[in-house]
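Lecture 7 notes: from sequence to structure.

We start with a single chain of 115 residues. Read the sequence below before looking at the structure.
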Amino acid sequence: MTASETTRRTPPTWAVAAIAGLFGLLFAYAVWTAVNYLVATVQAAGAAGLSLTTMGWVVWVLAIVLPILLFAVALALGLRRGLLSLALFLLTALTLVAAFWLDVVAYTTTVQIIG
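Now the structure, written as tokens:
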């Protein structure tokens, strides 16, 4: 084996930043939407003289924290594996966020979280 066969070619920094930035915007939108819905729910409950239940708080806080956590994990796992792997890790994490968001929407529309 030669030295060139054993060394790994690192992807250009601009490409990694572009992929991470594009996916970062999508993850930030998920966080922003969750914060928006949390504020709207708290305001609606306050206007009715009620408050969110414990499970309501847990659901909305998880909807805020999960995209941030999954973005960080996907970025950490994909940074040293090449551009395609990075994009696939981030896409998988975004898919998990979308599935969780659908669960949050279904839960908050069918279960009473204001009490």
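The two ends are 68 Å apart (CA to CA). Keep this in mind for problem set 3.
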